[in-house]
Amino acid sequence: EAGVAQSPRYKIIEKRQSVAFWCNPISGHATLYWYQQILGQGPKLLIQFQNNGVVDDSQLPKDRFSAERLKGVDSTLKIQPAKLEDSAVYLCASSLGGGLEAFFGQGTRLTVV
Amino acid sequence: RKEVEQDPGPFNVPEGATVAFNCTYSNSASQSFFWYRQDCRKEPKLLMSVYSSGNEDGRFTAQLNRASQYISLLIRDSKLSDSATYLCVVNDNAGNMLTFGGGTRLMVKP
């Protein structure tokens, strides 16, 4: 079974530039999560989708971050404009829901210079 | 108070030692609990789910104490390959939201 796919793996951008990340969850998984993981910390939930609807985005900095999952499958996360403190690994995960475990993609390592 | 709290460590133990980690959570309505393992520069991977009755998988034992709102992970006969960060994860079930602790770093030395 294919796992969660993410791209790109690495991205270096200058502050104030824009960047987008893509995620393809495991087939059939209705729940999709985007997490931000800063070095030395645990993953922090940015946004959670159930199919194409947003369940929780309370920790998403909406002035610069946006995410969508238009057809309830793939998702994109965008940052515009980026700040130095956005340097982190952005992890996408998916789950069947119902309190079951989530499976993670390899992440996108973002460096803002 | 953080929703899910862990001692960041590091726990430095010799090979063959037994080591235990605890994790406390604040939401008493939480229903599902997990331990994930994360290797350096890798994504988190599920180590084991934590059931109310406790569960064991080889050298790993997980326990849940709902009254005190904590879960634990016990690793027996530590191996060098157990060196990693162990993440405690709590699911509120209602919204299926997964909240991670900050992780506990384990280093097993020869």
Number of helices of chain A: 0
Please compute the radius of gyration of chain A using only Cα atoms: 13 Å
Identify the overall geometry of chain A: globular
* Percentage of residues assigned to helices of chain B: under 10%
* Strand coverage percent of chain A: over 45%
List unreliable stretches of 5+ residues of chain A.
none
Please summarize the sheet with the most strands of chain B.
6 strands, mixed
Q: What report would you give on this structure?
A:
The complex is a heterodimer of chains A (113) and B (110). Chain A has 113 residues and is mainly beta. Helix content of chain A is 0%, strand content 50%. Chain A has no helices and 11 strands. In chain A, the strands form 2 sheets. In chain A, strands 2, 4, 5, 6, 9, 10 and 11 form a 7-stranded mixed sheet that branches. In chain A, strands 1-3-8-7 form a 4-stranded antiparallel sheet, with no helix packed on it. The N and C termini of chain A lie far apart (37 Å). With 110 residues, chain B is mainly beta. The N and C termini of chain B lie far apart (37 Å). Chain B is globular and about 45 Å long. Chain B is built from no helices and 11 strands. In chain B, the strands form 2 sheets. In chain B, strands 2, 4, 5, 9, 10 and 11 form a 6-stranded mixed sheet that branches. In chain B, a hairpin with a 6-residue loop joins strand 4 (32-38) and strand 5 (45-50). The A-B interface holds A 31, 33, 35, 41-45, 48, 50, 55-56, 91, 93, 95, 97-107 and B 4, 6, 31-32, 34, 42-46, 49, 87, 91, 93, 95-103.
